[in-house]
UniProtKB/TrEMBL annotation:
This is Ataxin-3 homolog. Keywords: Cytoplasm, Hydrolase, Nucleus, Protease, Repeat, Thiol protease, Transcription, Transcription regulation, Ubl conjugation pathway. It comes from Fasciola hepatica. Pfam families: Josephin (PF02099). Acts as a chain editing deubiquitinating enzyme that binds and cleaves 'Lys-48'-linked polyubiquitin chains, with a preference for chains containing four or more ubiquitin molecules thereby modulating protein degradation by the ubiquitin-proteasome pathway. Probably by regulating the IGF-1-insulin-like pathway, regulates lifespan. Regulates germline DNA double-strand-break repair and apoptosis in response to DNA damage by recruiting E4 ubiquitin-protein ligase ufd-2 to DNA repair foci. Interacts with key regulators of transcription and represses transcription. GO terms for biological process: protein deubiquitination; proteolysis. Residues 176-191 have a biased composition (Polar residues).
Length: 255
């Protein structure tokens, strides 16, 4: 378990922790992501000069938008695909989640990774003190539970970089006894995982109460997937393209 790269929650830097958990190494810092956010802001402002100067891709707490995460992953030729997208690729991922490489989840601006290492799945949520093993059988149930609670879920496509944990766990998968601490090996005890479960439940309960206060139904949260956001971004890009086209048309005086 100690071979798995895991960053604990620091401030609101869950996007950084999520990316590094996915890539299994300290590949991105807050400074790196801030630079990507700045590039996105500049690109958006060049197309919309009258838009607000306030960044839509980061804030002072350490929050970063999905556009920043997407741009960071593109450096590694990786892509996020909404699990609920109506496409053959997404349908396959829904039917056989264990055949995927990793999932990235978001709930009220908190990002975390669920990733396969070796032949086993791990919840790498930074609010937990250590990674948590998820059985193949439970993975589908867990994803369904997260969707019901209002999480947006994306699966990752592309080739992930190799990691020490991945290589080791291919040949030495963890046993249930090792995870629960019932064998004579160093590692987390079952009480440690119970504490993590309680922290997770408290975090989810807090998020759920905030949603109730704002009178947002679970069904509405489920439907507000990133696919819809991407469609809006695409439409905006098309509108900008049309605008640019008309701006550059030669005037009749020049004919």
């Amino acid at each position: 378990m100690e071979r798995i790269f895991h960053e604990k929650q620091e401030g609101s830097l869950c996007a950084q922790h999520c990316l590094n958990a996915l890539l299994q190494g300290p590949f991105f810092t807050a400074v790196d992501l801030a630079e990507l956010a700045k590039q996105l802001d500049e690109a958006e402002q060049s197309h919309l000069p009258n838009s607000s100067r306030r960044s839509q891709n980061m804030d002072e707490t350490g929050y970063f938008s999905i556009q920043v995460i997407t741009k960071a992953l593109s450096i590694w030729s990786l892509e996020l695909v909404p699990l609920l997208r109506q496409s053959p690729e997404a349908e396959t991922a829904r039917k056989n989640p264990t055949n995927q490489k990793a999932f990235i989840c978001n709930f009220r601006d908190h990002w975390f990774t669920i990733r396969r290492l070796g032949q086993q799945w791990f919840d790498l949520n930074s609010i937990m003190s250590r990674p948590k093993l998820i059985s193949n059988t439970y993975l589908e149930i867990y994803l369904a539970q997260l969707q019901k609670e209002g999480h947006s879920i994306f699966f990752v496509t592309g080739k992930l970089p190799t990691s020490e944990a991945d290589r080791y766990l291919w040949e030495n998968p963890l046993s249930e006894q090792e995870v629960s601490g019932t064998v004579d090996q160093p590692g987390p005890s079952s009480s440690d995982y119970e504490d993590d479960d309680e922290q997770m439940k408290l975090a989810l309960a807090l998020c759920q109460s905030e949603m109730d206060e704002e009178d947002v139904s679970l069904q509405h949260a489920l439907q507000a997937t990133q696919e819809e956001e991407q469609e809006r971004e695409l439409q905006r890009a098309l509108e900008l393209s049309v605008k640019d086209y008309h701006c550059f048309q030669p005037s009749s005086d020049l004919k």
